[in-house]
Amino acid sequence: MLNNILIVGCGLIGSSILRGSISKKISKNIYVFEKSKRNISFVKKINKKIKFLNDLDHQVSNMDLIVLSTHMSQYKNIIKKLQRYISSRNIVTDTGSTKRNIEKLIGKNKRLKEIFVLSHPIAGSEMSGPKFGNKNLFKDKWCIILKSKNKSSKKLKIIEKFWKKLGSKTIFMNSVDHDKIFSITSHLPHLIAYNLVKTAIDFQKKNKKNIIKYSAGGLRDFSRTAASNEIMWRDIFFENKDNIIDSINIFIKNLNNFKRLIKKESNKSILNILKDSKKVRRQIIELKQDVSKPNFGRDIF
Amino acid sequence: MLNNILIVGCGLIGSSILRGSISKKISKNIYVFEKSKRNISFVKKINKKIKFLNDLDHQVSNMDLIVLSTHMSQYKNIIKKLQRYISSRNIVTDTGSTKRNIEKLIGKNKRLKEIFVLSHPIAGSEMSGPKFGNKNLFKDKWCIILKSKNKSSKKLKIIEKFWKKLGSKTIFMNSVDHDKIFSITSHLPHLIAYNLVKTAIDFQKKNKKNIIKYSAGGLRDFSRTAASNEIMWRDIFFENKDNIIDSINIFIKNLNNFKRLIKKESNKSILNILKDSKKVRRQIIELKQDVSKPNFGRDIF
């Protein structure tokens, strides 16, 4: 059990870590630093023992573990503040969706490099804010822990233990691989969802027809993904833009190829593409990354 | 109550119509024409009173209502067979996802035009086959009924009543509007889902990394859509290709624009796009086209 944990930013992710930490007795004392008054008043209701910091001041030096769960665009200021008070007895981890940019922020500062062990829990939802947080948000989900050459194995183990206590399955990865992989499995899908919904909005405006009500045939699923927090996703799109632009280009190439195939009605090629993706669905379900129920079990008959 | 109804093709949709028709006592006798032996033996278990036709022969002339729920690529042969026996006392409807092509099949044949009232229930799932059929599949879902100038209002009313009995909300539309609207709300989303999964497969092959296990951050939702029946979707992509190609082009234009915006980090424009799509999500939920639960209520905490 840790003595002091500090959660910086208490939205969906931060408040889920908070709840999980209380439930799993991860730390004797739990501190929160949160700017939004609305969020603070909500978090106060979760547990009376939570302590609130008014600033990232000298008190942070007492924290065994500091978890950043703000939007990534706030990291720069936060790291600047933390830098004044933290030493090698502290560990800082985070929850951001891209990692190369955070490594760059830490830069070549030897002390910071020692203190920071970055991580990325693959969990969330389209809803934002502490209201939707849940102590089991990370249960059975992957959490990527960022490994680099000179990282202290002791600190890595503490972070690994932390996420495992919250229920995650952990895996180590370097930031270059991480940012490439998630540009495909997460950033591109979100970007596509946003642009598909935009395409529907454009169509609706141009044709003056209300088409949203016919979204049950496919669009509605994308609209869920496209309802995710806009600040979080702007940050991801900007911070991982090189990988994301590569992904968009590969995807557009596939789309153009598909367009050619339907134009000339290439039966066999089209069927192969359609059948292959069914295999991926089976893998995803076998890997317990999704529920197997038709329609996500959404239709209650 | 009808005397005789014939369901041609008894997969997910046909067997759901069958179950709904039994439950809502839509017809005294229910006939099924189905080629797959496996499906037949499954359907037999649903109800002992179901009668099976071995062919689309003279018996079809006794049917008050014939519902086509096969893949659209089989319509041509079916219509050819039906044509021999049906007269203006019969009504034929269907469940295909594109309509202009079916109208073309019926062509200028006056008798066929009189007998056919096309429809499109906006319901389904990624699972195929009668095993996954459900009597409530159409409940509270839209069903589009195709209206054209000389369609008998009596026949239109019978079809409207039929879908309402199965629980659908009905709306009339012409085939040109229908095929345009659903190219955006349904065909494009499916096509994109297939191509996104293909992009992930390509990446996996090229980089020799198993990325599917990290699909929880977005890809998994698309994989559900991309697990839909490949014959059905090939038919849709081929039959509505002009509208679909238009939709792909608009979508690619949006993607390229988005790419430019993230390249130059256009904060305001990106945030506007991301925020607008959240409004669409709210509309979809207000219109009861989706559940409001975070993550489709998929995570059971």
What are its keywords?
alpha/beta, 5-stranded parallel beta sheet, homodimer, globular, 50% helix, 3-stranded mixed beta sheet, 11 helices, 6-phosphogluconate dehydrogenase C-terminal fold, Rossmann fold, 2 domains, 301 residues
Write the layout of secondary structure elements.
The structure is a homodimer of 301-residue chains.
Chain A: E1 2-8, H1 12-23, E2 27-33, H2 37-46, E3 51-52, E4 65-68, H3 75-85, E5 91-94, H4 100-106, H5 110-115, E6 119-121, E7 142-146, H6 153-165, E8 169-173, H7 175-207, H8 219-225, H9 230-239, H10 241-263, H11 267-286
Parallel strand pairs in A: 1-2, 1-4, 2-3, 4-5, 7-8
Antiparallel strand pairs in A: 6-7
Structural features, described:
Two copies of one chain form a homodimer. By secondary structure, chain A is of the alpha/beta class. Chain A has two domains: 2-173, Rossmann fold (3-Layer(aba) Sandwich), CATH 3.40.50; 178-290, 6-phosphogluconate dehydrogenase C-terminal fold (Orthogonal Bundle), CATH 1.10.3660.10. Chain A has helices at residues 12-23, 37-46, 75-85, 100-106, 110-115, 153-165, 175-207, 219-225, 230-239, 241-263, 267-286; strands at residues 2-8, 27-33, 51-52, 65-68, 91-94, 119-121, 142-146, 169-173. In chain A, helix 1 links the parallel strand 1 (2-8) and strand 2. Chain A is globular. The model of chain A has no long low-confidence stretch (mean pLDDT 95).
